[in-house]
Hints:
The complex is a heterodimer.
Chain A: E1 5-7, E2 10-13, E3 19-24, E4 31-37, E5 44-50, E6 53-56, E7 65-68, E8 75-79, E9 88-95, E10 106-107, E11 111-115
Parallel strand pairs in A: 2-11
Antiparallel strand pairs in A: 1-3, 3-8, 4-5, 4-9, 5-6, 7-8, 9-10, 9-11
Chain B: E1 4-5, E2 10-14, E3 19-25, E4 30-38, E5 44-51, E6 56-59, E7 62-67, E8 72-77, E9 86-94, E10 99-101, E11 105-110
Parallel strand pairs in B: 2-11
Antiparallel strand pairs in B: 1-3, 3-8, 4-5, 4-9, 6-7, 7-8, 9-10, 9-11
Amino acid sequence: EAGVVQSPRYKIIEKKQPVAFWCNPISGHNTLYWYLQNLGQGPELLIRYENEEAVDDSQLPKDRFSAERLKGVDSTLKIQPAELGDSAVYLCASSLRGDGTNEKLFFGSGTQLSVL
Amino acid sequence: KQEVTQIPAALSVPEGENLVLNCSFTDSAIYNLQWFRQDPGKGLTSLLLIQSSQREQTSGRLNASLDKSSGRSTLYIAASQPGDSATYLCAVRGGNEKLTFGTGTRLTIIP
């Protein structure tokens, strides 16, 4: 079974440029997460989708970040314009969420973003 | 706001030794606690999940315990191997359904 697939694996851009990340979750998983992980830190939630609905985007910086999950499968996360402080690893995770008490998350390998 | 702490930040032990990793959290109103492993440049892999009503979970050489009232969890690794070298993170799912991660313990097993 294929795991969570993310692309690109690495991205280097100059500040003020746009950037997009793509995530393909495990087949059948209804819940999809985007996390941001800074070096030496734990992941921090950006947005959570239940099917195609964004049910928690309270920590997404909406002035520059946007996300979509069309048809409740693949998802893209976009930053426009990127700032130096956006350099981090962007992780996607998916799960088959029931009531949440026994939910296990499966993570992709992440996209490492460097903003110069 | 839930805060999750993992101490120490880094740990080195000789191969074959048993070891314990610690995780503490400030709000005991949790649904569950998970332990993850992260290898360099990779995503996280779920190791064990303990529901709030449980005291421990075991998988192979790994045993995770949960003391919700004191806000603590431990991950016990028996007979450590070089392949166990990785960063171990704990994460707590709180009443607001958010998953809050600790900063991790970087474990190095010395052959």
